[in-house]
Design goal:
Nucleoside Triphosphate Pyrophosphohydrolase; globular
Amino acid sequence: MDTVRVVCGVIFKEDKILLCRRKAEKPLGGYWEFPGGKVDPDESESDALNRELKEELAMQVEINTHFKTIIHQYENIKIELIAYSCEFVQADFILTDHDAIQWVEKRRLLSVNLAPADISIAEALISNDNIS
């Protein structure tokens, strides 16, 4: 089984991080996640993240640094989830793949019903005092 490369943004606005809830009819519907999406062949991770945020949320961010990469095996798919620390710039929040958004304090990330692959990212964020 091939591994699907997925990039996500840990998007900060002041002291909170953006989470998006997947629409019920989508795979992992109802789960909250760090926004992003698949990296296309011959596309850089940063280009993919900018494209996905624009397509899914009409959002612009400033991508800072790579934060963490994890491999997660779901029942039918294996993903490489590549997280980047970002600063929020602006958004119209036109939701295409999600039905809700929320800004969450870092310490509260695990109180949300996160998608399984995103839990490792949240745990690393909570234990890392150097990122905010």
